Fold:
Amino acid sequence: MLVTEQERLRDDLVKMADRFGRDRSALMPILQELKRTRYHISEYSMQVIADLLDIHPVEVSSVVSFYSFLEDKPQGQFVIRLCRTIACDMRGADHVARQLVNDLGIEFGETTPDGKFTLGWANCLGMCDQGPAMLVNEKVYTQVTPEKVHAILDECRGTFGMHATADKER
Amino acid sequence: MIAETTHGSLTFSTIEPGSGLDAALKRPPADALRRIESSGLRGRGGAGFPTSLKWDLAIKSPGEYKYVICNADEGEPGTFKDRVILSDFADLVFEGMTIGAFVIGAKHGIVYLRGEYAYLRAHLETVLRRRRAQNLLGKKIRGQDGFDFDIEIRMGAGAYVCGEETALIESLEGQRGEPRNRPPFPIDTGYLGNPTIVNNVETFAWVVCILAKGAKWFKEIGTKKSTGLKLFSVSGDCRKPGVYEFPMGITVAKLLEEVGGEGAKAVQVGGAAGQCVPASQFDRSIAFEDVPTGGSIIVFGPQRDMLRVAENFLEFFADESCGQCTPCRYGTPKLIEGVKMLQQGRCSMQYLHELCSLGETMQLASKCGLGQMAPNAFLSIVDHFQDEILGRAGRG
Structure:
């Protein structure tokens, strides 16, 4: 029998609920795992999670909308977040920002049409002594210069799967 | 991967893992608490609440389940010392939590690690596994009957406000990270309604040092009201940015000398929520009774545009506001508008006064620390740099 994508998603979510528990306090770990493995927290998955935890789907949606690392729009396989807080700003984050926009061909807040990259801002990444700093998924890059941007993007394109997830390939 | 930060010789590197815990376990829990009390240790996250008092209140709160939470949601702009502690001295943090559990009688510990530091998680899990194997965590710790305690790591998801302790607890409970009204405080109504202590990463590490080296050693350093040593995260216009250990009460001038920041025109102490100290006040000391800080020091060289600094901080708060209360939600964007008017040279003195009074209202009327502190940087910059920010020729 053909397993539909929806059924597979539901199975995955049930497994996550088995792993993290079905209390309300399991909500964040489930959402984080879903985002990490599927890059997208869809309305359907929010409904399934709500059913599993026995809460209203609006509760799930309100949590997703609150946190900047949880998004209800599909995200790229590589989510790039450039720090825009003062120390990185003083070290020229705006030049890096310009170069990211030029090299990716998208503005901040957008995802490339091939679904590879999402470009966004971050607030202080805790790398103030080595700015400008940038997160690509869970990996941090420091002292980024406009000329390094191209190499970092190339590294992502070439090694998909290596650090798209921290511990294992999907 | 853990990014390298330059740091000199820190007290933390001289402490043998296990030594603080063993010192605590030799005597009853009340004794460890007394030693922390006599050291005068105050919370290292920035607020400076006496650690022993917080723990004592949690002891006295009735409840079968008590929790020890480590606040590793280090989000204050310019702060990165917790990152260094977690990557180089994670043992001390977990040990401090274990001592906290011994003192208040908790069985569960949670590290709330900010989402931006996800790359530290694997390392922290490794340290936890090793400590379990060494019987420093788990059941019957160090052979002590009935002393069971374990720690789990939970991730944040990119919300600065979750560094506020009640918002952090909300987030752990699977809610939006909106601060609660206080009281009740977490010490009686914390995680899942149970008595909970929430302490900063650095506070836990100092607890271990105090128990290992003695309260007297700690108390003799620093000032009367702010005892001991403190880690500082130094960034901005200086030759040697990085993490430093200084005694509390160090003057701004002395600190600048150590980090190669002489000639600075201002220093932001305490991050976006802190205050901007101009060169004329560099003789002030960094301590809870003068200029308080959670450790963030950002140096501004002579060429820096202070209005740009104020704008950057306000944009940070506008972005991170949870939107619950009106003063913070509407006040911050209004101040940003004001900064833009100043940049264009269109702001009258009267309007500037209006903006300052709005800032003061936010300090009074906002629900949590985020909103109360959001106008701080703006107000101190207006206060100290009026000549620089008023009457600008329009920049278009």
About this structure: The CA atoms of residues 51 and 79 of chain A lie 29 Å apart.
